[in-house]
Write a structure and sequence with these properties.
The structure holds two protein chains of two kinds. By secondary structure, chain A is an alpha/beta fold. In chain A, 44% of the residues lie in helices and 12% in strands. Chain A has helices at 18-23, 28-36, 39-49, 61-66, 91-98, 100-114, 128-143, 174-181, 210-214, 216-222, 224-229, 261-266, 295-299, 311-315, 318-321, 339-353, 359-376, 383-395, 403-427, 429-432, 449-457; strands at residues 77-82, 118-123, 159-164, 205-209, 231-232, 235-236, 238-245, 251-256, 280-284, 293-294, 329-334. In chain A, the strands form three sheets. In chain A, strands 8-7-11-9-10 form a five-stranded mixed sheet. A four-stranded parallel sheet of chain A has the order 3-2-1-4, sandwiched between helices. Helices cover 43% and strands 9% of the residues of chain B. A four-stranded mixed sheet of chain B has the order 2-1-3-4, covered by helices on one side. In chain B, strand 3 (152-154) and strand 4 form a beta hairpin. Classes of the chains: A alpha/beta, B alpha+beta. Chains A and B meet through helix 7, strand 3, strand 7, strand 11 and helix 16 of A and helix 1, helix 3, helix 5 and helix 6 of B.
Chain lengths: 458, 193
């Protein structure tokens, strides 16, 4: 399972610079595509690869590209979504910091495939250092004739610019990102029209995540069919997982899709087990927006099968007993974590980041935060728990963009799986008034399968 | 958002003439050229970053009006953007802005304790500036460095794997730096790239 595609050569000194990257086979895919392949052949390879968006939704990249309106006379744009702000997710930052040319290479190929002449990388404003690294990489590629006018002597020309955001989670939503790129507030647009028809400046636009675009280089090099053989089923290829929380080895790991979650958490190659020899309580497997799962359901599906790191397996059982792959932000909670406190914390995040356009999200996130705050601080009522379920249910699906869903799911799932802990906060108000009440003994984690396996792995 | 929405009336009008240096104007022109003709408003976010850096770390109304004139857009178009994004400050800040992440992954790794400890060390609350004008303390939502939690941002740089000893060290280091280098102001000396 140690297959490295995106992070290949990560440890080579100087890999951030063009010469080293090139000497190890970098940019050969650009030569192959521009000199030997037509744009539609490049698209075909991506379709064959089965590549799915790595930003959170998991939508087929080939299909997204095929929607691009090529018949208008308007210019077309490719926008790279580098506004990585989902709590628990830091894989794009890692990739751009260490292997910026992997992204530039993928951008050139994708832009060529889509007939794009101008490409923008929208990077979150806090990534000041990363923006500098990317601009340097772009300049290096330009100096070597891989960007700019008449690339490699062909008729194809391309410019890539980095555009800084300024601190708004909502700008990771593709239409909010486009608004922001146009110099406006990041208010998501009503869809349709989709960006493929009316995107940046009203022109056909494709918005893809950093990791998605970075994968295009290896796909062209090895061929779409070979890429599709990596992974499991419809989850092809490898995925960057950013692991954080109460584990021994937080960090960014490239995994082949299909790795059992248990191996990911407990083996030395990846997370290295739970920190301080504690027990696993819960995991949010795909960034803070996706449903949280208790230890027994993250390691095994409801039907008792090992849960795997694939789009399908993580979603198995739907929201009743499953979650989502999301952005790959893997947040691990040990037995000391208070799920009410954590849910309050994340709801505060969504309240802060709601753009304010849609009433259900603007009012609902603030309402949920208020209720969760009083539950967490020992002032809640039993009816508050159903109130939360009700408010979350009325946000979900009733907003222009998915931020509403993203705010509702963590609350609904925490109550679904940890309802007793919420009730405990009402019945034991004096206990939870102590700010360090994290370790609530009756809910300190499952002692079943995962306790055995953790011993086994240690 | 809602926090910032309430802050509108705090925007500062100084009635002082504002003008960028020739070098800054040249940089701004090159930024505008990155976008298609007639779409110069796209350069607003990058220009506001520069404007904030050039003028001591916050956006006054005078400065925003000036930026509007450079882009040939209405001042309100600048205000609505400046009040939306959390990286734009509408009031004066200290020399060093400490922004501590307190979102989920940092919180379970001790981010809230770090925030409390800095409050105790500096004797200020979140959102306040120390009387000597050195430190402004803010709490921020996810900085995207959860693997190195707890994390804070000091001006534009990240400080990671924080603990109490590290905070002591960082505060001492920043104080020493402030004493050594009176001018130019370190915070805004680093040009936006």
């Amino acid at each position: 399972m140690g297959k490295k595609i995106l992070l290949e050569n990560l440890d080579v000194p100087g890999i951030r610079h063009f010469d080293t990257y090139r000497a190890l086979g970098g940019y050969t895919s650009v030569e192959k595509a521009l000199l030997e392949m037509s744009p539609s052949q490049v698209v075909q390879e991506v379709v064959k690869s089965g590549l799915r968006g790595r930003g959170g939704a998991g939508f087929s990249t080939g299909l997204k590209w095929s929607f691009l309106d090529r018949r208008t006379g308007k210019p077309r744009y490719l926008v790279c979504n580098a506004d990585e702000s989902e709590p628990g997710t830091f894989k794009d930052r890692f990739l751009m910091e260490h292997l910026p040319h992997r992204l530039i290479e993928g951008l050139i190929l994708s832009a060529y495939a889509l007939g794009v002449k101008t490409c923008y990388i929208y990077a979150r404003g806090e990534f000041r250092e990363i923006i500098g690294i990317l601009e340097k990489a772009i300049q290096e590629a330009k100096n070597q004739g891989f960007l700019g006018e008449k690339i490699l002597g062909t008729d194809y020309s391309l410019e890539i610019f980095v555009h800084p955001g300024a601190g708004a989670y909502i700008c990771g939503e593709e239409t909010a990102l486009l608004e922001s790129l146009e110099g406006k507030r990041g208010n998501p647009r009503i869809k349709p029209p989709f960006p493929a028809y009316k995107g940046l400046y009203g022109c056909p636009t494709v918005v893809n995540n950093v990791e998605t675009l970075a994968a295009v280089g290896p796909i062209i090099n090895m061929g779409g069919e070979a890429y599709a053989r990596i992974g499991k089923g419809k989850s092809t290829g490898t995925k960057l997982i950013s692991a954080c929380g109460n584990i021994n080895k937080p960090g960014v790991y490239e995994i082949e899709m299909g790795l059992p979650v248990e191996d990911f958490i407990y083996t030395e190659e990846f997370c290295g087990g739970i920190k301080n020899n504690k027990r696993l309580k819960a995991v949010i497997p795909g960034g803070s927006s996706v449903p949280v799962l208790p230890s027994e359901l993250i390691l095994r599906t409801a039907s008792g099968q090992p849960r795997l790191m694939t789009f399908e397996s993580l979603a198995e059982g739907d929201f009743a007993s499953g979650s989502m792959m999301g952005s790959g932000g893997f947040i691990v909670f040990d037995e000391d974590a208070c799920m009410v406190r954590n849910t309050w914390n994340l709801t505060r995040f969504y309240r802060h980041e709601s753009c304010g356009q849609c009433s259900p999200c603007r009012e609902g996130t603030a309402w949920m935060e208020k209720v969760l705050y009083r539950l967490e601080h020992g002032n809640g009522k039993m009816s508050d728990i159903d109130l939360l379920v009700n408010v979350a249910g009325n946000i979900e699906g009733n907003t222009i963009c998915p931020l509403g869903d993203a705010a509702a799911w963590p609350v609904a799932s925490a109550i679904r799986h940890f309802r007793k802990e919420f009730e405990y906060h009402v019945t034991h108000a004096e206990v939870v008034k102590n700010i360090h009440h994290g370790c609530l003994i009756p809910f300190s984690g499952d002692t079943g399968t995962q306790a055995l396996t953790s011993i086994q792995y240690r | 958002m809602s926090d910032r929405g309430l802050a509108h009336h705090l925007m500062i009008r100084e009635n002082k003439p504002v003008a960028f240096s020739a070098g800054t104007l040249e940089k701004i022109q090159s930024l505008i050229l990155r976008y298609p003709e007639g779409k110069q408003k796209s350069a607003l976010l990058p220009i506001l970053h520069i404007a904030q850096e050039e003028s001591g770390g916050y956006l006054s109304v005078d400065l925003m009006d000036y930026v509007a004139s450079l882009l040939d857009i209405q001042p309100i178009e600048v205000y609505e953007v400046a009040t939306f994004y959390s990286m734009f400050y509408l009031h004066k800040t200290g020399k060093f802005v400490l922004e501590v992440c307190h979102t989920g992954p940092c919180a379970i790794c001790g981010g809230e304790e770090i925030l409390a400890y800095i409050q105790e060390r500096l004797q200020i609350k979140t959102g306040e500036t120390t009387p000597d004008g050195l430190f402004t303390l803010r709490e921020v939502e996810c900085l995207g460095a959860c693997g190195n939690a707890p994390v804070m941002q000091v001006n534009t740089g990240f400080r990671e794997h924080l603990n109490k000893e590290k905070i002591d060290h960082i505060l001492d280091e920043l104080r020493a730096r402030a004493n050594q280098e009176q001018t130019p102001d370190l915070k805004w000396a680093k040009k936006f790239c």
